[in-house]
UniProtKB/TrEMBL annotation, chain A:
This is Proteasome subunit beta type-1. The lineage of its organism: Eukaryota, Viridiplantae, Streptophyta, Embryophyta, Tracheophyta. It comes from Citrus sinensis. Keywords: Proteasome. It comes from the Eukaryota.
TrEMBL record, chain B:
Residues 6-28 form the Proteasome alpha-type subunits domain. Residues 241-270 have a biased composition (Low complexity). It is found in: Cytoplasm; Nucleus. Component of the 20S core complex of the 26S proteasome. The 26S proteasome is composed of a core protease (CP), known as the 20S proteasome, capped at one or both ends by the 19S regulatory particle (RP/PA700). The 20S proteasome core is composed of 28 subunits that are arranged in four stacked rings, resulting in a barrel-shaped structure. The two end rings are each formed by seven alpha subunits, and the two central rings are each formed by seven beta subunits. The catalytic chamber with the active sites is on the inside of the barrel. The proteasome is a multicatalytic proteinase complex which is characterized by its ability to cleave peptides with Arg, Phe, Tyr, Leu, and Glu adjacent to the leaving group at neutral or slightly basic pH. The keyword ATP-binding does not apply. Keywords: Cytoplasm, Nucleus, Proteasome. PROSITE patterns: PROTEASOME_ALPHA_1, PROTEASOME_ALPHA_2. This is Proteasome subunit alpha type. Residues 240-279 are annotated as: Disordered. InterPro entries: Ntn_hydrolases_N, Proteasome_alpha, Proteasome_alpha-type, Proteasome_alpha1, Proteasome_asu_N, Proteasome_sua/b. GO terms for biological process: ubiquitin-dependent protein catabolic process. The keyword Cytoplasm applies.
Length: 244, 279
């Protein structure tokens, strides 16, 4: 008796990748701007990044309808928090709230793979990484989404994460400067862009133009990266071989 | 004459066709410290007198932000006011969540009024003992509403509630016809003057009053004490003995000087020294 497969699924995967890196006094988040379904592209210009609070930004890949619903819910909860406490929610606070919100739907989950980034109460960069049902961990850097399997080993290599087996526990927050961290993004998206969708090298320039929405938190300022256009990108197709 | 016989229950009519419990609830509003509101075409200003019980205690919070475009000032039982503000905030959040657009003030006050009416027709409830001055913006412009414990609501150009509010109302009645065209600064000054009227001789200081503003392009926020004190100082130059007609003129000059601009009162651009958002 072969298993019956449903004719309809409530979920869809709109693809995309998100990355975040925490520094000593900054946090950098980036996500590609492609929204797809199957092999088709729905739009080339959709932001997966959402600012939840002054010092807390979330990037989510997966099913964007669920992501949108999640963002709206968290925004409403944040408003309630502000009314009750007369201040903005901290990033660690929002991290816990996100986890609880995801687990609330443990038996019909949000198909959303999240990365939360921002500044903690001491002003240090923090990144939290989640699975679809709310299991989360504070880390020095993380990526989620279609390209994450390619980007994570790359970041592990570049950011030399200390072993979690070490005692005393060591911070994975990178000593790199913010500009160097942004450079890493260019390289990570480049690497993931090529192999993840298996396009011929001629299409690579197309992917560069997708790396558009980045949000940087430095000290108390939150600002969006300038679009990375084909001309500005430092990496040519020929460099690909070196990275891969 | 019959008051004492028919005033036990809110669900008992008097022979004259009155619900005494509801009227007593309106009395509670009159006992609270004053709150005033006034509006122009583009801005609404709320002000209230904040009297602490003693020097040791903190002030009662009487002005609440409900949403970016709506705020409320209360007079009467502040606990009831707090609960109603929470209801209003919740309604605004739910509406924006569903419709991705701000809840129109007019709708909110009707919901509030209906909520108040319920309490006038249930034997196991009591009317809310708080009057609310709801200030808000919608596509048609600025609005000021007053919600009574009775479940009635009215729209006003300017209004005052609470103890000694009659003095403020008299002041506002004299000048309300000009409010439509007032600048934001003038509106705030008129609000402070109206508050001063309710104090009846006591010096107006930023420690005993609170002022909040909402306007086109300006989310609802409570002005911080420093800003309010500066504004008070800038019109106190006129002194209390001069007539109200003279005071605004010198106040205007003082105000412009404080803003550091030579612009005339009418042409004064908004929001130079505006306090950052409360939240």
């Amino acid at each position: 008796m072969t298993k019956q497969h449903p004719a309809w699924s409530p979920y869809d995967n709109n693809g995309g990748t998100c990355v975040a890196i925490a520094g000593a006094d900054y946090c950098v988040i980036a996500a590609d701007t492609r929204m797809s379904t199957g092999y088709s592209i729905l739009t080339r210009d959709y932001s997966k990044i959402c600012k939840l609070a002054d010092k807390c930004v979330m990037a989510s890949s997966g099913f964007q309808a669920d992501v949108k619903a999640l963002q709206k819910l968290l925004a409403a909860r944040h408003l309630i928090y502000q009314h009750q406490h007369n201040k903005q929610m901290s990033c660690p606070g929002m991290a816990q709230l996100l986890s609880n919100t995801l687990y609330y739907k443990r038996f019909f989950p949000y198909y959303s793979f999240n990365v939360l980034g921002g500044l903690d109460n001491e002003g240090k960069g923090c990144v939290y990484t989640y699975d679809a049902v709310g299991s989360y961990e504070r880390v020095g850097y993380s990526s989620q989404g279609s390209g994450s399997t390619l980007i994570m080993p790359f970041l592990d290599n570049q950011l030399k994460s200390p072993s979690p087996l070490l005692l005393p526990a060591q911070d994975a927050v990178t000593p790199l400067s913010e500009a160097e961290a942004v450079d890493l993004f260019d390289m990570s998206f480049l690497a993931s862009g090529y192999v993840a969708v298996m396009m011929p090298i001629g299409e690579i320039s197309f992917f560069y133009s997708n790396i558009r929405s980045g949000v940087i938190v430095v000290e108390d300022k939150l600002y969006i990266c300038a679009p990375v256009s084909v001309k500005d990108c430092k990496f040519q197709a020929s460099d690909m071989a070196i990275i891969l | 004459m019959f008051r004492n016989q028919y005033d036990t229950d809110v669900t008992t009519w008097s022979p004259a066709g009155r619900l005494f419990q509801v009227e007593y609830a309106m009395e509670a509003v009159k006992q609270g410290s004053a709150a005033i509101g006034l509006r122009s075409k583009t801005h609404v200003v709320l002000g209230c007198v904040n009297k602490a019980n003693s020097e040791l205690s903190s002030h009662q919070k009487k002005i609440f932000k409900v949403d970016d475009h709506i705020g409320v000032a209360i007079a009467g039982l502040t606990a009831d006011g707090r609960v109603l503000s929470r209801y209003m905030r919740s309604e605004c959040i739910n509406y924006s969540y569903t419709y991705e657009s701000p809840l129109p003030v007019g709708r909110l006050v009707v919901q509030l009024a209906d909520k108040a009416q319920v309490c006038t027709q249930r034997s196991w409830k009591r009317p809310y003992g708080v009057g609310l001055l709801v200030a808000g913006l919608d596509e048609k412009g600025a609005h000021l509403y007053y919600n009574c414990p009775s479940g009635n609501y009215f729209e006003y150009q300017a209004f005052a509630i609470g103890s000694r509010s009659q003095a403020a109302k008299t002041y506002l009645e004299r000048r309300f016809e000009n409010f439509s065209e007032s600048t934001r600064e003038d509106l705030i000054k008129d609000a402070l003057m109206a508050i001063r009227e309710t104090l009846q001789g006591e010096t107006l200081k930023s420690s005993i009053c609170t002022v909040a503003v909402v306007g086109a392009g300006e989310p609802f926020h409570i002005l911080d004490q420093e800003t309010v004190q500066k504004l008070i100082d800038s019109f106190d130059i006129a002194g209390t003995e001069e007539g109200p007609a003279a005071a605004p003129d010198s106040a205007a000059e003082g105000g412009s000087a404080a803003e550091g601009g030579a612009a005339s009162e009418q042409g004064a651009p908004a929001d130079e020294g505006v306090a950052p958002m409360d939240i």
